[in-house]
Amino acid sequence: MFNFKIRNMKKFLVSALSLCVLFLGMNAQNKSPENWFNLDKNADNIRGISTEKVYAEILKNRKSSPVVVAVLDSGVDIYHEDLKDNIWVNEDEIAGNGMDDDKNGYIDDVNGWSFLGNAKGENVSQDNLELARLYKTYAAKFGTKVATEVPKEEQKEFGKWQIVKADFETQRKEYQDNYDGFLGFSERFLAAKKAVESFLGKENPSAEEVKAITTDDKELAGIVTFYYNSLMRGLSTDYITEVINYYGGYIKYKLNPDLNSRAIVGDNYDNVNERIYGNSDVKGPDADHGTHVAGIIAATRTNNLGMKGIADNVKIMSVRVVPDGDERDKDVANAIYYAVDNGARIINMSFGKDYSANPEIVAKAFAYASKKGVLLVHAAGNDAKNVDVTDNFPTRSYEGFKEFSTWIEVGASDYGTNSSFVGNFSNYGKKMVDLFAPGVQIYSTTPENNYERFDGTSMASPVVAGAAALVLSYYPQLTAVQVRSILLKSVESYKKELVNKPGSKDELVKFAQLCKTGGIVNVYNAILLADKMAK
Question: Per the CB 3.0–4.6 Å rule, which of 200, 285, 298, 428 could disulfide with 314?
Answer without folding.
Answer: 298
